[in-house]
Amino acid sequence: MPFCGIKATHVGDENMKLFQYVLSFFVTMVLSIGLAGAQNQSDSWTLTESGLVEKIYQDATILSKLTAQEELSSSLSLEERSLYQPIWKNEVYYQNSNEKALASFIPTFGPTHGFQTGLYKRFTRGVEVQANLFSDLSSTKDNVIDHATRTGINLQAKIDLWKNLFGRLDQAKLQSKELALKKMALENQIAIRSFELEMRKVYWSLVAIEEKITISKKLLESASLQYKDSVSRKNKFIADATETDRYKAQVASRQATLYALEYQRDLARQEIKKFIPTLSSLHIEMGEYDREKAVNTVLACVMTIKQFDQAPWDHTLLDEILALIEKDYEQQKIIDESFDGIDVALQSEVQMSGVDRGYQDSFSDFSSNPKAGFQVGLMVDVPLGKSKNKVKSAKLRAQYESFLTNKKETQASVNAHQSQLLAMIDTLFASTKNYKENSATLSSNVQRIQKKYAQARVDVRDLVLEQDAFFQNALNEVDSHLAVMEVLLDYFKIFTLDPCPINQVYTAYYTPSER
Asked: What is the pTM of this model?
């Protein structure tokens, strides 16, 4: 008995330890599931159109790309302007020689050393100026000249008299860089708006997918009930296997459609995450949306757009870009026409100096009794041959063709979007109306066929075909609404300043002048 008592106590301890282990494991699992649930909840993001637009103007990768482009364009403009900033030039030199003199009256100098320091400035009017303070000391090998020193100042100037007269060429180059910078800013503004509108098309495609999923789930549920009912009737020998298989195939078909729609939804979510890194690790959940309100807003926008007899150029930035292209074309003509021109420049120098033995004495002589000297020269460079002329002609033709192409394409794009929008919208509205009317007709047909089928007056295949037609029509109706929205958003890529409320969502998050 004592032995048995000891054994029972041991078993009781083991059971208690096992119970504690199971209880600890269970509590850990519950806490883990709870924490995971809380984490999943915090790692989700609710998608709304306004929220997506806000994310685009805060975190989209395109912002960095456009900023880099603007910085590069700005650096090129600043690089051109940097050519006209003052430069402090310094020169220190030393020379010595043991060469034999060519003649007794031509001594060999050595050593010779000195320095020169001064400011150089190139102006945008075809003028270059340099002012220097200098001093040099020379001696001859035979000591006839010993420490002869000259100290003074000089002023040098170069004036272009032909190609760059009054800075004509300089001004054209600077103006071209400034125009390119302004053009880049406008193009970037259009680019970010186009990206925003493209992302909003993804948003509305998600809305359409959600609508289709809702429809698909309802019809899948209906098909499943029909299948279960057919199985029940088959078991009661009221229906045959053909009917059951038909309903089973319908369930499989609608389930496959649902899977395809869920896959499309994942692709659309991935498209958003790809361009907005802060959302890459978050689960995107669909927020609330008002499809009817969106449809009414679209209708109001279309009615406003229809009032324009011609393309509203004041609603697009392309007219400003076109004006900049035209101005830049004029500047490029000036630059290219000067390519094979001759260079004529007037060069002059005025100098005041003092001469004595040693730096200190020469400076004293310069201070008390400076002597003046001057030099004037004319420089003429004439290109020979016809190669430069051919290059100039090619450049001018290329500039003209590029300008003409840009002008025609821009005008055509604006006019085409205005005229084609109205035609496409009318067609899509007619299509949407047709789907809506067809939906009412098919709904009545389904009800009528169901009654006939219950009365054994039609085959199950006819009922399934009618139900599938109703289902497909419902999906097509959603697609037609989506197409209307996409066409309008594409219209705003050209007419970025259109006052339509749908187009003005971005204004709460983006002000071009701030960038």
From this structure: 0.76
